[in-house]
Amino acid sequence: MSTIRDQLEEITFVHSPYVIICEYIPLGPNQFDYLTKALSAYKRDELFITSLVDLNPHEPCFEVGEDIAYITIMDFIEGEYIRFRTNIKFKEEKGIRQEERLGVSIYESGTIFYSTKIKGCLEEQSNPRLESLSEDISLDKLARIVVDLMEDSSSLMHCILTAYQKRILNVVYPRSHERYYERKKLAVIITDKIIYEGKELTEKIKEQEDLELLIYKDSGFRREIQQILGDIEGGLMVGKDIIVKCRDGLLILAKDGTVEEYKTVLRYVLPLMALDEFYSHVFARIWVIWDGIDEFRKALEQAERGGSISELRVWLSKILSDVVILTNVDYIVKYSLRKIKADYAKFKGRGSLSPAHKAIIDLVDPGYVLNIVKEKIRATRSILDSFKMDIDGLTDLIGSFLEKEMKELREAMYESIEKQTNILELEHAENESLEMIELLSGGLLIAELLSLIFTWLGTVYGWGLRGWEYLLIVIITIVFAILLKRLVSMVVAKAGKDSRTKNMFLK
């Protein structure tokens, strides 16, 4: 049941279609070998997979909830492919009921196929009890099913891929593992009956118009196909079969039991189309990186005029990381292209191609796609090399700015140290002055006391030193000041020694 509240104008229906989704993910032999071990492909195992992480590994149970897929390995050839069936149990939007089983084929070249047959879609009626499954599915509803399959296949692969591959996908398709952020895939719809405006498509073409007019004029058929497969690029009829090629896939009407023939040729043709699609997004990311370098250069100019450049180093490191990732992808893609090209040449060299095979080859033109991918790889490599040179220059520039900042910081530090030294010298002079004043004050106090004593002795006993008492007062005052100063110095020295001894004991 759809959760979108709308009124659909359903004019095109397909009968119980096969849906094949194809994408390219950079693997390479090492990553493919790791993948086979992670899936226990050697054992032909059955296992559950989930993107959740066990945060309590010491516990005997691990609760995964609804985000889980059940995998059964069907076939495996080392260094070639893994094929398995999966029953996906990912959480759906409220109100949606579906059973989702996919066949998945992962090739060492990085090509991944997801396939399923849609047996029926629920018809909405006014009375819920009368709801039933219909094998004739409108393209409006099929578009939603295909989008859901693309999203679930991305979630499935997110559970399987290594952290490095996820990093690659995050560079090429940012946030693609999140809901509503889908990475681009090719879709192929194969059916044995298409109903358009109440009639079978082949009959309608014979009665009213040829295929060219139907797919190129502004018709309801064209609009509905394009909402699933993108802009229409061509089409042809092979006997009773109809093939429509679009920017993002193919629509195939197989009337004469040629479904398996189409599946066979698509196995060798779709990888080239998926690789071409992948590199289109790589180029898009390259221009994003280019814009990022330009913005970085402007920010660096502002920092040169007085701002801080510490944060810019992190920014430049992120840009360099993306460039390195894309450079590594370039090596992997060259390996994948050799594998895909060899497989296609082997298929075409059989010499017994059926009309269905030739029709797909004529529409897709793999030789042309192959040359386009080669040129994209060559251009990408050249641009990435220029990015590295540009980043190296910016790194050197940041280094010179950092040296300038460090020099200014050192000069400021030396100036601060000099000021602190001057302040300490002034404080030392003031301390000595205060100490002298205190000693003189103490000496004067002694002199005053001695004067009073001598005056009392002369008054009471008539005893005097005939003026020598003043010289005696001065001498006693000086001696007392010297003794007092020595006593203070000894006390301060002993206190410092005790403090150092205590600190050494604590250490």
What characteristics describe this protein?
507 residues, alpha+beta, 11 helices, ten-stranded mixed β-sheet, four-stranded antiparallel β-sheet
Describe what you observe in this structure:
By secondary structure, the chain is an alpha+beta fold. The chain contains 11 helices and 16 strands. It has helices spanning 28-38, 139-160, 163-172, 201-207, 211-216, 220-229, 259-304, 310-348, 355-364, 366-460, 468-506; strands spanning 12-15, 18-24, 46-49, 69-77, 81-88, 100-107, 111-117, 121-122, 133-134, 136-138, 186-191, 194-196, 199-200, 232-238, 241-246, 249-253. The strands form 3 sheets. It has a 10-stranded mixed β-sheet with strand order 3-4-5-6-7-2-11-16-15-14, sandwiched between helices. Helix 2 (139-160) runs parallel beside helix 6 and helix 10 (366-460) runs antiparallel to helix 11 (468-506). The mean pLDDT is 77.
Task: Describe, in short, the structure shown.
58% of the residues lie in helices and 16% in strands. By secondary structure, the protein is of the alpha+beta class.
Evaluate the radius of gyration.
Answer: 43 Å
Fraction in helix: 55-70%
Cα shape: rod-shaped
Quick check: average pLDDT? 77
How are the SSEs placed, and which strands pair?
Elements: E1 12-15, E2 18-24, H1 28-38, E3 46-49, E4 69-77, E5 81-88, E6 100-107, E7 111-117, E8 121-122, E9 133-134, E10 136-138, H2 139-160, H3 163-172, E11 186-191, E12 194-196, E13 199-200, H4 201-207, H5 211-216, H6 220-229, E14 232-238, E15 241-246, E16 249-253, H7 259-304, H8 310-348, H9 355-364, H10 366-460, H11 468-506
Parallel strand pairs: 11-16
Antiparallel strand pairs: 1-10, 1-12, 2-7, 2-11, 3-4, 4-5, 5-6, 6-7, 8-9, 12-13, 14-15, 15-16
Helix pairs in contact: 2-6, 3-8, 7-8, 7-9, 7-10, 8-10, 10-11
